[in-house]
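Dear Dr. H.,

I hope your travels went smoothly. While you were away I took the liberty of generating a structure for the chain from your last submission, since the lab meeting agenda had it listed for discussion. I wanted you to have the full record in hand beforehand rather than looking at slides cold. The sequence, exactly as received, is reproduced here:
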Amino acid sequence: VDEDEVSSGIEDGDALNPHGMDPETVLRFIKLTGGWPGKVVIVACEPQTIEEMGVGFSPVVEEAVDRAVDLVLEQAKELLTDEAYASLDEK
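The corresponding predicted structure, in token form, is as follows:
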């Protein structure tokens, strides 16, 4: 996600609800407070169905979680060498 893709900020009167934040709201808040990290990568698993509430993962999501963990680790390694973060080491 590029900074330009995120709307300008939190509108007057909008509240941040920690139990209902979506990625766009979090990124708008970060942008508003001047803390844009330079690069944002979002890795997510979407449930196959949401008809029944329960504890645990469906088999499909359980399989996807392993791949999501691998993607997060790959992205973390890439971010460690990313030019957008090179200047952070100098601080």
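Two observations you may find useful: The mean pLDDT is 75. The first helix runs from residue 23 to 32.

With kind regards,
E. W.
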